[in-house]
Structure formats: structure tokens, C-alpha cells
Write a structure and sequence with these properties.
The chain is α/β, with parallel strands linked by helices. 53% of the residues lie in helices and 13% in strands. It has a five-stranded mixed β-sheet, with helices on both faces. α1 runs antiparallel to α3 and α4 packs across α5. The longest helix is centred in the middle third of the chain and has 32 residues.
């Protein structure tokens, strides 16, 4: 049953990605003229190929985060979707009733400085309310040398305890 459920979620994910690529039009891509010149793209085909690739990969990365969020919420009875206006991706209630708020990121290099500063404040807010709050990163290791993990260590107080990475 669990394998069927996972297969169903995976089919949904890949199906949505295929629809997104099939529905791309020239009107939906926005070529960056500086990038075009920097990469020495000379033909319209090169420009379109790059922009389709960038659009598709960005969409897949974003959708993977939604996929992981949906998988987490579906696999744990004590997990659910928080109010949309909260900005959090998931909320899990422990056996002793404590709330754990989670911001899901698919990989170890998905956040910039502004996002980390924003989430550091949101995490502190939840801690002040007596709850726990985490940034959950689906894959990677704390030892990875990525910009995001470096910034998390610099900006997020007690980042080792507030980030969940990998399993």
C-alpha cells in the first residue's frame, strides 16, 4: 500500500512537470539579454533552448519541494498543513502536544541570505510562542560546502538544532 501511494504521488509530480513543459510558449519565457550576451548565445534557437531549460529546471526544483512537503504530510498522522497565511510548509504535533513548524527545502543550497534572515525571525517567533520550528532540508549533509549551509551557520542561532538535513 505504501509503495502504491508513493508511486501515485510520483506520477502526479512527473505529470505536472510534463504539462508545464508542454504548455511553455515564447510569451511565457523572459530572456535575460545580459545572460544571453555573457553566454555568447548567437541564435534564437540557443536563446530559446537555454530559457526552456532554465524554466523547466526551476519549476522542477520548486515542485520537488512541494512533493516532499506533500509526502511528509501524507506519511505522518500527526503532520498537517498549517494555515496558508502562516508561510510554513508543514506542522507536526508531537505525542506530548508540542507543535513543530517546518519550512521544507528540497536541497542544501536553496536559500539566499534574505530568505535565511526572514526564516530566522519566523523561527524565533515560534520559539517565543513555546513551539519548535525547523528548516527541513530533504537531502545533503551538514558538512556540504554550500552557500546556504554557510549562511545558515552564520545567521541562524543554534543552526545545528534548528535545521533538519537528510533523513
Amino acid at each position: 500500500m505504501a509503495e502504491n501511494f508513493l508511486a501515485s504521488i510520483c506520477r502526479d509530480f512527473t505529470g505536472r512537470q510534463l504539462v508545464m513543459v508542454e504548455n511553455l510558449t515564447l510569451g511565457k519565457i523572459h530572456p535575460n539579454p545580459f545572460l544571453i550576451r555573457a553566454l555568447n548565445l548567437d541564435t534564437p534557437e540557443e536563446v530559446v533552448r537555454l530559457n526552456v531549460y532554465m524554466t523547466a529546471t526551476r519549476s522542477i526544483v520548486t515542485s520537488m519541494g512541494f512533493f516532499i512537503q506533500k509526502l511528509f504530510i501524507s506519511c505522518y498522522e500527526s503532520a498537517g498543513s498549517p494555515p496558508e497565511e502562516s508561510g510554513w510548509d508543514a506542522i507536526k504535533t508531537t505525542s506530548d502536544g508540542e507543535k513543530c513548524w517546518i519550512q521544507v527545502k528540497s536541497g542544501p543550497n536553496d536559500m539566499d541570505k534574505d530568505q535565511i534572515v526572514y526564516w530566522a525571525a519566523k523561527i524565533e517567533e515560534k520559539i517565543q510562542e513555546g513551539d519548535r520550528a525547523y528548516i527541513g532540508i530533504a537531502y545533503g549533509k551538514r558538512t556540504n560546502k554550500t552557500v546556504t549551509l554557510g549562511l545558515l551557520k552564520q545567521i541562524l542561532p543554534n543552526s545545528e538544532m534548528i535545521t533538519l538535513i537528510g533523513r
